[in-house]
Amino acid sequence: MDDLTTLADEHMALAGSDPRGRSAHLFLQDGPLRQSVIALVSGASLEEHNAPPAASLHVLRGYVRITSDSGHKEVAAGQVQRIPQERHGLTAIEDSVVLLTTVTGTE
Question: How far is residue 25's CA from residue 39's CA, in Å, rounded to a whole number?
């Protein structure tokens, strides 16, 4: 069993010392299901990338912005947001840790 609080603490510390201001860890993989903790310091981002078949973002700490061609969504700690089914990016408005859940394929 993984402790999300511990993972969040560890990766926020790693993001703080990373030149790009981020750290990520895939901690659960079960068939097409993936869960990752991603930590971003304020202003750091994940550049635009393709969406998996299904995904959600749960903000554990902080405040982030998901951007896509159809607009943007701001998501605060404690909130969960579906990832748009299009190219998208993620920017930390303040130091943030998120839980990304993806389904990488369908049967």
Answer: 9
Across the range 53-73, mean pLDDT stands at 95
Burial class of residue 66, CB neighbours in 10 A (0-12, 13-18, 19+): buried
- Mean pLDDT of the chain, nearest integer: 94
This prediction's pTM: 0.93
Rounded to the nearest angstrom, the gap between the alpha carbon of residue 83 and the centroid of all alpha carbons in its chain is 10
Q: Which residues pair with 26 in a beta bridge?
A: 36
Token reading at 35? 């869960």
Residue with structure tokens 């990832």?
83
Query: Which pLDDT score is estimated for 107?
Result: 59
Q: State both tokens at 105.
A: 């394929």
The average pLDDT across 10-34 equals: 96
CA proximity to 68, closest of 82, 48, 52, 38: 48
